[in-house]
Design brief:
Strand order of the largest sheet: 2-1-3-4-5-8-10-9
Distance between the termini: 70 Å
Order of helices and strands: HHEEEEHHHEEEEEHEHHH
Radius of gyration: 22 Å
Amino acid sequence: MRSTKTATYCKRTILFTLILFISTQNFAQGAADWRLEKMPVDLETDYALSALPPHLRNDATIYLLDPEKGYYVSRQGSNGYICFIARTEWEWDEFRNDVCTPISYDAEGARAIFPIYIAVAEMRASGKYSAVQIRDSIVNRIATGVYKAPAKPGMSYMLAPVMRVYPAGPDVKTPVTVSMPHYMLYAPYLTEENARYKSGTDGLMLANPDNVVLGDGKAPYGYIIIPATEAEKAIIVADGKDLLQRLAAYKPYFKFDPGSMHHHEMAKKTE
């Protein structure tokens, strides 16, 4: 009897230890998912500024990312424009460490849109939220009016010579490296149907992944995309030659095909 009890006890102890080990490993793997590597400050600064046209860079506010806390002001500007690098796209409800998108906003975008990036970065940095919880939190805040659409027309510049982005909507989970500098005009609640002549025609280049999450016409953060001309893109890439070399040396995934397109354009082609 005693030997049977001892054997049972040993089996339960081994089972408990195994479960504890597996749980600990799973927690460690899950915890590691949210961690981001800190980019070198000089590289992150120059990369963030590359989103803006040159004449707006000197007086723009620069936000850098502390992976342990979130975004912070590295330099306070005076012209109303901000720039930063987006490292997490909440609509895709996943944590990756290879998404790097330089974005800039004018004063209206900084007021109405950038707070979402701040909140997402802080939640991810805390390690207390899953990617799905972050998505649901943002959806709830939009639904309850915490976050609102821009109140007036405005401009977001994404003129960096290269970026690491998702090539389509939230159902596509693998980022790509592309070069397509472009301008983005705020287009709250604009639908695909209303952005083209009729189904089957190209229409405007509209980017709004929130439509997939919130429902068509219910997303306040849509953009009309205006790509830089080929001549302008050539100048942007030439001016960014040194930055491109530094980025490629930092992470190989920044190397790109000069003929690559932006994710929003590719998303439109896959509709």
